[in-house]
User: Fold these one by one.
Assistant:
Number 1:
Amino acid sequence: MNTFRFFWTTHKWTGITLSLVFVLTAVTGLLLLFKKRADWIQPPTQKGQAAPVETWLSMADLWKTVEAENHPDFQTFEDIDRVDVRTGKHVYKVRSKHNHTEMQVSASTGEVLGVATRTSDWLENLHDGSFIGEPFRDYVMPLVALGLLFLVFSGIWLWLEPALKRRRHRRRKARQIAS
């Protein structure tokens, strides 16, 4: 089998096989690009009351505030995935391990400023393949990336090889005419 036929066949079947993953990755990536502009994708960061950082809530006091809300996604301290500190807005963003829930708390007063779902976290899990599981993300998604690189290079070859053949053919004809 010549190289053109090999690349044409493997390019076609690689593209068909990976097309669903590429579409999913492209759509979720596009939505993630707009997450700061669309409140339904990621809740906007609220603004807490300004105060010196020395007076901000400690982590223990923050947990007491979160616990007092009695939200089903924050029943124990272990339910917290992370706490983002937004110093410019004087806010703690407390993120749950469950249901992509986020609670925003004023760093100075302890007032709960909002509780919302972070659809962006779910989109990120779709985007990187971790919604299926960590092994899928760690082992299959790199193969998908390699498949995309193969499609790029084989596509270039599929375009380049016929162009080179036409060029060689024209040169041969020109030499025949000249002699």
Number 2:
Amino acid sequence: MNKFLFLLSILIFLTFISYAQKPKLTVNNDAYLDTAIQKNIDKNKIANIIDGYRIQLFSGSERNNANALKTKFLKLYPETPAYLIYQQPYFKLRVGDYRTKIEAQNIFYKLQDDFGQVIIIPDKINLPKIN
């Protein structure tokens, strides 16, 4: 009877040991996906450009008017960046780097009073600087 209990205890012990082992998990992923993700990460590190909004103050074919408006804007709002863009045949003056439309609306109404007809435009913006 002692031999039977001994063999039974060894059998139970071996059963617990086999269940206690952790299963091994192998993940097979597509190399193309890893490459695409890494390219996107690298591009964002270099470019520092994201989707956002800017406020357009001017769109027209007169470059002198666009430069004069840019100078006027920078005197009133020196902390806000201004961008003069040429998209043939128009010069466009866009200001600010706003991540959301709500951020752009905060200054939009002030600019309407100062510059008349202005619009909020979806655009690629520079990443905000961290203080």
Number 3:
Amino acid sequence: MIRVVLDTNAVLDLLLWHNPELDCVARAVADGRARLLCDDACLRELRTVLRYPKFGLDDAQAAALHADYCAQLEMHALPDAPDSTLPRCRDREDQKFFDLAVRAGADLLVSRDRAVLRLGRHRLCPPGLRVLAPPAIQDLFAAPPPA
């Protein structure tokens, strides 16, 4: 099973814009080949972003998208303190996604943010964690599930 963390923009790609680049994730979650990981900090950001007027969602629509996402998640507790051994993201607001991916043992962190993607190339990034933009994730989900 592929353990996946989506940053907020990737969640919007998946649930709001139905970006075909994330269809492979939706299919893998639906058929049990992938699990979406999250924590309270990442969910708070999503709830805030869904209320931005530029998305044109009313309160009920935003709540429905949030609930749809929550129904698919494996939740992880927030740490008491940040892990000072991890590489730091230039954008402090995006650090939480990398921290969650490491803490939860994710195989994949999906983001389009250059600062987040840079963390995936950092020498201190755990070797089992891939940090990739949506166009680069297709092959990870192309393999059939093990028999």
Number 4:
Amino acid sequence: MEVAWNTRYNTGIEIVDEQHQELFQVVNRLRELVQEGADRGVIGTLLEDLVACSERHFATEEAFMAKVAYPDLPQHVAEHASMLTSLHELLGKFRESHWAMALMVPTFMEGWLKHHISDGDFGFVTFLKARNLV
């Protein structure tokens, strides 16, 4: 089952929207590979890509939020840090031969992405719009 990108997740911030879409694409590819029973090395590489994409995206968001003095930045940073901790733990368990971890990542990421964009990122968009910054 595909992790569907939907325009309702558009924030209006081009780079953020592009990175969100990239994350959805990586999660979709990961789900496909796991369902196909792809080689463990290929899946491991994609899990590493997912972590790297997440780190890059979070850094982008946090820099943008800091630039405009977003008051909820500390909470947003904490959410990102928690997510990265979870991703690193899942990757570590996968590397320790826990194949089931790879099966869990797409579902975990899909839920987290949808919730985080809808709740966390749109709070930032509301802040920007109130100040005519987007």
